Amino acid sequence: MNYFVTAIGTDSGKTLVSSILVEALKADYWKPIQAGFPTDTEEVKKLVSNSITQFHPETHQLKLPASPHAAARFEHLHIQLDDFVEPETTNEIVVEGAGGVLVPINQEDFVIDIAKELEMEIILVANLYLGSINHTLLTVDYLKRNNFNVKGIIFNGDGNPESEQIILKHSGYRPLLHLPKLGKVTPEVIQYWADQLMLSWYE
């Protein structure tokens, strides 16, 4: 199975979670669309320490740190869903999206449509802040109405049991991990949380 990491918004922790997933599963990593520098692929490479993972090149590497549809237009490019071809590998792949679920890649399609096109299972990252219940449940509603296959949810940030409880109740999703606010993130930190993730992965 290949996994598509998406989130309730930008800067929710997708790259951190992707690094943990890659280390836990010894999976390959692929970021189909990168807008801006430094790249998330470079960041994940620094944090993953196993010798099995391969890092596949971005399909679109855009200079402007903006929504993909805008960053592509800035470079006179047009992104299409059929641009995205799954990398050739015998390994599982962790695929990191760009921004939240409904970030546009062109005038019709969204980042999450890449996951649907390539039949990937969704990992939803929800960072916890005032207003995140609404943002998370709106994201869940979209995923459910459009029949996405969701593996589970990873919470990111200081614990908020009331928020987590109501999100889990109304989503029906399985909690895979709760990451606290982390200080310096090192390969050792990633390995620790990868081990924690594996405790609940196959439940």
From TrEMBL:
Q: Does the keyword Cytoplasm apply?
A: yes
Which GO terms of the molecular function aspect are on file? ATP binding; dethiobiotin synthase activity; magnesium ion binding
* Subunit structure comment from the entry: Homodimer.
Role summary: Catalyzes a mechanistically unusual reaction, the ATP-dependent insertion of CO2 between the N7 and N8 nitrogen atoms of 7,8-diaminopelargonic acid (DAPA, also called 7,8-diammoniononanoate) to form a ureido ring.
Q: Which CDD domains match?
A: DTBS
Residues annotated to bind ATP: 11-16, 40, 96-99, 188
> Where do the annotations place Mg(2+) binding?
15, 40, 96
| Pfam families per UniProt | AAA_26 (PF13500)
Signal sequence range: none
Q: What reactions does this protein catalyze?
A: (7R,8S)-7,8-diammoniononanoate + CO2 + ATP = (4R,5S)-dethiobiotin + ADP + phosphate + 3 H(+)
- PANTHER family listed in its UniProt record: DETHIOBIOTIN SYNTHETASE (PTHR43210)
Family stated for the protein in its record: Belongs to the dethiobiotin synthetase family.
Alphabetic keyword roster: ATP-binding, Biotin biosynthesis, Cytoplasm, Ligase, Magnesium, Metal-binding, Nucleotide-binding
Record-linked HAMAP family: BioD
Positions annotated as active site in the UniProt record: 31
**Could you tell me which InterPro entries the record lists for this protein?**
DTB_synth_BioD, P-loop_NTPase
Which cofactor names does the annotation list? Mg(2+)
Gene that produces this protein? bioD
Its EC top class is ligase
Q: EC number(s) in its UniProt entry? A: 6.3.3.3
The name this protein goes by in its record: ATP-dependent dethiobiotin synthetase BioD
Q: What GO CC annotations are associated with the protein?
A: cytosol
